[in-house]
Amino acid sequence: MVHYRTALRTDAEHIALLHADSWRRTYRGAYRDAFLDGDVVANRFEVWRSRLSRDRRDQFVYVAEGDSHLLGFICVFGNEDLTWGSLIDNLHVSHESRRSGIGSLLMQNAGTWLASHYGQSGVYLWVLAANQSARSFYERLGAAHAETMESEHPGGGSSPSCRYVWPRPEVLRMRADGLTGAK
């Protein structure tokens, strides 16, 4: 049974560990091995402790958990960019839980939150160009590839990243709704 809820301050360590594991499994070859094998957990813990330690009206962090284990999370910043709109900053699902619908439900919840708070702005995210699996997932959710740019990575190095966009959060919510079969 998967339970979805707003992240709490006490979730920072679990989110950081899942985030680091996801990067280690997915970004090998794009991010520097020394970073992935070394400081990635400390780096992600610092980020998540900071993000969850203060209340921000423009931030939405939502988690999926099962049997008291974190299975996935999403982080969104409303109206983050004047041109592109709200940013889906992170979406990660545990390796064991991939392709189970958790990512789609997290995206659906983000779309619902964005539609109620930032309904008239667009939505966008960045994904590594080499991450074809994630790119295909976002395309199934109705995102359009807008551009590709070189992006710098924590720990050094860079690689091409693609910006994917939705014209409005309602489009994202409805497409995710269609993938999950939720009403």
Q: Could you characterize the architecture of this molecule?
A:
This protein is of the alpha+beta class. It has a single domain (3-180), classed as Aminopeptidase (3-Layer(aba) Sandwich). 39% of the residues lie in helices and 32% in strands. The protein contains six helices and seven strands. Helix 4 (102-118) links the parallel strand 4 (85-93) and strand 5 (123-128). Helix 1 packs across helix 3 (40-52) and helix 4 (102-118) runs antiparallel to helix 6. The longest helix is centred in the middle third of the chain and has 17 residues, at 102-118. It is globular.
Mean pLDDT: 93
Shape: globular
Tell me which CATH architecture applies here: 3-Layer(aba) Sandwich
Distance between the termini: 19 Å
Number of domains: 1
Q: Class in CATH?
A: Alpha Beta
Number of strands: 7
Tell me the name of the CATH homologous superfamily: Gcn5-related N-acetyltransferase (GNAT)
Strand neighbour order, sheet with most strands? 1-2-3-4-5-7-6
Structure annotation, total helices: 6
Based on helices, strands and strand pairing, what is the structural class?
Answer: alpha+beta
Helix content percent band: 25-40%
Q: Largest sheet, described in full?
A: 7 strands, mixed
Q: Estimate the strand proportion.
A: 25-35%
Radius of gyration: 15 Å
**SSE run:** EHHHEEEHEHEEH
Unreliable runs, pLDDT <50, ≥5 residues?
Answer: none
Oligomer: single chain
- Write down the CATH topology: Aminopeptidase
